[in-house]
Amino acid sequence: MNGMDGAALQCRDFVKRHDLDAYLGTLLSPEVEHPRLFAIWAIAADALRLPWSATEPTMAMIRLQWWRDALEAGEGHPAFVYLAGRERVPLIQHLDAAERLHGAPFDDPDEAEAWGRRTFLPLMRALAGEGEKEGAPEDLAALHGLVLLLRRAAIPRRSGLPLLAGEHALEAVRERAAALAGKGQLRTWHVSWLPFALSRRWMRQIMNMTIREMLKHPPEFPQWRRQIHLMRCRLMRRL
Fold first, then answer.
1. C-alpha–C-alpha distance, residues 197 and 111, integer Å
2. Which residues, in sequence order, are CB contacts of 92 under 8 Å at separation 6+?
3. 68-118, pLDDT tens digit by residue?
4. What CATH code would you report for 6-236?
């Protein structure tokens, strides 16, 4: 990390504060790729935190539109120093899908699963860049999205609306995520997808909690356990 300049360090520090899984996973990627990966994750982390950080929904929409315009122009943020044109379209698609987090509570597990695919497949494509050979695994993208919904369900959005529409929706999404986590075809490998590898570990933690616990407190997963799991995935070259 010693070779990173000020812009790269700014992106890295932002990701470390707002998406620890992405930060730890990126550290295990080739060092030459760190500036580009941290730049991508900085954009994603900012978009995905807005429902819980923007003081008003209108401000969140303005922020998302600012990202879209800046990506099209290729300027306006330190992240763009490291992004080529090929990352811009999938990142805009990611931002478009992330906007759904500001809407009505998720009630249908089918919609939640589709949202996960629509949101994280473009992000995975952007992360893999030219190194992607087989295509991003759709089930892993969907699982990652469902786990994000479950992890944040206990955190009130600034709008005052819950993220999931009650205990029935929480249980339905949990069951759908557990089914996806149990599938065997989630082993498609690309080193830049390491943060997604934690989704299965998060599901184990979530399945150990009761619905009442989940509605009161976000699930916890210590940093050292995240690091061990990611290192194991990195060494075994699997997700």
1. 22
2. 68, 71, 72
3. 999 988 888 888 888 877 888 999 999 999 999 999 999 999 999 999 999
4. 1.10.600.10
